[in-house]
Amino acid sequence: MTRDDIGKEQRESLLALISELADLARSETLKWFRQPQLRADNKLADGFDPVTQADRAAEMALRAHLARFRPQDGILGEEFAAVMGESGLKWVIDPIDGTRSFLSGTPCWGVLIALADAQGPFLGVIDQPYIGERFVGGLGQAKLTGPQGTVALRTRETQALSDATLSSTFPEIGTADERAAFQRVSDEVRLTRYGMDCYAYGLLAAGHIDLVVEAGLNAYDIAAPIAVIEAAGGLVTDWQGRKPGENGQVLASANPVLHAQALARLASAI
Amino acid sequence: MTRDDIGKEQRESLLALISELADLARSETLKWFRQPQLRADNKLADGFDPVTQADRAAEMALRAHLARFRPQDGILGEEFAAVMGESGLKWVIDPIDGTRSFLSGTPCWGVLIALADAQGPFLGVIDQPYIGERFVGGLGQAKLTGPQGTVALRTRETQALSDATLSSTFPEIGTADERAAFQRVSDEVRLTRYGMDCYAYGLLAAGHIDLVVEAGLNAYDIAAPIAVIEAAGGLVTDWQGRKPGENGQVLASANPVLHAQALARLASAI
Known about the structure:
The structure is a homodimer of 270-residue chains.
Chain A: H1 8-30, H2 36-41, H3 50-69, E1 74-77, E2 90-97, H4 99-103, E3 110-117, E4 120-128, E5 133-138, E6 141-146, E7 149-152, E8 165-168, H5 176-186, E9 191-194, H6 199-205, E10 211-214, H7 219-231, E11 235-237, E12 250-253, H8 256-266
């Protein structure tokens, strides 16, 4: 099946389910975030990786829930083998996007959960457990629930790079060519911000920033952001304007006008 | 008077007062953060600056409260003229530290409030209104209150740069020489994180990161972090190991061993 086969009743049930999954991941990840056992284990240079432990615990909880309520669907997750599924639908899971952020105690990592068909992701959640903030997009929804209540997600109408705010994980990521391409965009925008990991996609969907440029991403890093940003009126492609894919390059924009301008600066780096 | 003249009863009353001030600033800044009027006004390139409006509203509220309850003390704030005072004590206020963070909707700006005597700050609050998180240090307190309840602030015991996590606003700040000095430290640590503004000092005090290196800071940017970090067992100096001052350079560390190692890398940039 595809997104077009999903009726009203099933839509409600999928929205409820993705919310339950995000609740589960929230509770599993907060057992580790900023906790003494994370700090202690982190000192064992060659011991087990506590973030991976938290990742695994959360992903196992999500897989168990899906096995019970959506046994027919596939699963792609960071920590365990893919489940093929039979329905044509696939859950894409990254329980902790932003490992370094998680380890450093910053509140800008997130839980990413998406539902995709053969065309790609069409429902997504970006959840920040510590703040208690959830961005949901797809199946008719585009909303943020958090400390200020619930607000509609809607991307900005910024029409020129010179008015735009850009967020990126550069300079921490990318090849030298990719950094140069990122720099060409950064040089033209009004403001570049760093260190936000997946939280930046939520800010873009909510209309607070205009562009995200990243490299080195995996499929499970970008599925939920695609669904949330598209539901809010924005768009996400690779640096050549194609569906984000194997090369790990991502450009997310508030609107097509800005997207074209950023693409033109990025396009020479393949 | 100095910090040594403050008795037990006055200590309680000053701790209550700084908490009231932080509550006031929280409510004033949240009237603007991520709100439509901030977004709209921000498009008027030559109009008034909405962040400055939010800054001013918050600082006025704090000054009014101080005029009522601590008329004898001095005030140093970002937005209005200094008040000299007669008591020997001075309140140092930055209602929104991290203007670019505030404008971009990220949750890593903060309210900074400190109380200083002639020796420097001895009581400080770093407050993150959106998350509802407050770091308090001084007068016998060192605690964080937030989404996970109240926890004691205590810096880490990391003994080597190679095990340390560093946070900084570089590459956005500093001269070329300062960037080179920052890079010498960054090259040796395990992990460098960006984009945290004053929130990084809270993370250092809470034991989640080990070092903060900054340049271009003002006195009102660093007073509260000094008090909070010192109360948690850490230390803050300029890049020559002196009290932070006119040159705007700051090194904050979890402990003296790490501080000495970072200073050695920074010291050649004056």
